[in-house]
Every structure is written in C-alpha cells, then in structure tokens.
TrEMBL record:
It is found in: Cell inner membrane. Its main location: membrane. GO terms for molecular function: energy transducer activity. This is TonB C-terminal domain-containing protein. It is a single-pass membrane protein. InterPro entries: TonB-dependent_transducer, TonB/TolA_C, TonB_C, TPR-like_helical_dom_sf. It comes from Labilibaculum antarcticum. GO terms for cellular component: plasma membrane protein complex. The keyword Membrane applies. Residues 37-134 form the TonB C-terminal domain.
Length: 221
C-alpha cells in the first residue's frame, strides 16, 4: 500500500512588486467541472489523477520528483523540465498529468500584460510508514563519512540517494555541490548551488561567486 503526498514547491501565487513592476505569477484555475468536484488547487488535481507507476511501486521506489514548466501568455503549458528525478516512470507520470492541465491556467501578468512565467510542482511518492527525512539524513551522514575517508565518488553516489528523498534540503544540496566540485563536475556543482539560491538560501553564494561566474555555469542568478 502506498500514500502519495503532493505539494506546490514554491509559493508563486502572491502579487509582487519588482522594481516598480507589478508581477502576478500564473494561477491554476481549472475548469468548471473540476471546480464542481471541489478541486481547489493544482495539488487536488494531481492527487486525484497521479498514479503510482506499477514498476516503481512493485520495487518500493520512493521519493520526490520536481517538475518545472512554463505557463505561456495564452495559458497553455510548455517546456517541462525535471529538476529532481526519482525514476523516469515516476517523472513521466507527473508530467503526463500536468500536461492535462494545459489551458487551465490564468497566465502570469507583468503590469497587467499576460506574459510567460515558470511554475514548479513537487510530487512525493511515499510508502506507508516510510520516513523520508530520516532516510535522507541517513544517506547524508553516510556521505559525510565517505568524504572524511577521501572517497568522494562513493559520497556522491550516496548523496544522489539522499536528494531523491529531500531534494530541497539545503545541507544536502550544498554538500552535493561541494562533492561534485571535488570530483570535477563543475556544471553539476554550480547547478546545486544555484538551486540553493533559487530556494532562498545563501549557503552556496561564496562558491557561486568563486566557481560559477562563467556564462556556462551561471544559472538562475
């Protein structure tokens, strides 16, 4: 038996003022039949429709997949990107259901003018009685021990397991970025630190400034 928890990863529903520009992020509106069935949010819509892929369920594979997509000015969806993956079948299941919401979004606005904007949704697939925080912390501690023994490649593999359970955890993202730097994966390191920055953490800022100033690595700055 499984339990699926769903959540919108970032609060993008509030009107914001950026440099005197009135910015309103995209909002999921649904359609009349959805509203009549009490689907009050994208979370409700996903929870009703997302299915645990049979292969992943049978293998007791768990974790949180994060998908970014663009809500175009006409309310249609485009450019689906997996930010954090569990397995390809789980990722594809989330994207498949998200694509069903095409045309059910009120586009973001810039000073009243509809514009294309990004949204991000995370979906957690969790077996009953499973503790993802505890599992992620276990892998994190194991990775630290491997680093202390100068085994960064093993540490990186372990951190990749940890991130599946807690993809937005600051400490895991930061340590994986440092570990990727050690093994020579500069692009991966900068991606992790930029992800930290996009989540509101300054934990990786010093590393971003030192290692990720080149155009090839400067993401979400």
């Amino acid at each position: 038996m499984f339990v699926v928890f769903l959540s919108v990863a970032q609060d993008l529903t509030k009107t914001r003022m950026l440099g005197g520009v009135d910015v309103i992020p995209p909002v999921f509106t649904g359609i009349d039949i959805i509203k009549s069935n009490d689907f009050g949010s994208i979370n409700d819509y996903l929870e009703e429709r997302v299915q645990y892929p049979e292969e992943s369920e049978s293998r007791w594979i768990e974790g949180t997949t994060i998908v970014q997509f663009t809500v175009l000015a006409n309310g249609e969806l485009d450019d689906f990107r997996v930010v954090s993956s569990v397995t390809s079948d789980i990722d594809n299941e989330v994207i498949k259901v998200l694509k069903l919401t095409d045309g059910m979004w009120s586009p973001g606005k810039n000073n009243g003018t509809p514009v294309a904007m990004e949204r991000e949704v995370s979906v957690t697939f969790q077996m009953e009685n499973s503790d993802h925080v505890k599992l992620a912390r276990k892998f994190y501690n194991r990775a630290n021990k491997r680093l202390l023994k100068n085994k960064p490649l093993k540490a990186l593999r372990i951190l990749n397991h940890a991130i599946v359970y807690q993809p937005n955890d600051y400490s895991i993202l930061f340590l994986r970025g440092r570990t990727q730097l050690i093994v020579g994966n500069m692009a991966g390191a900068c991606q992790d630190w930029n992800r930290l920055k996009s989540l509101g953490s300054d934990l990786g800022d010093a590393y971003l400034e030192k290692h990720c100033e080149m155009d090839d690595y400067a993401v979400n700055k």
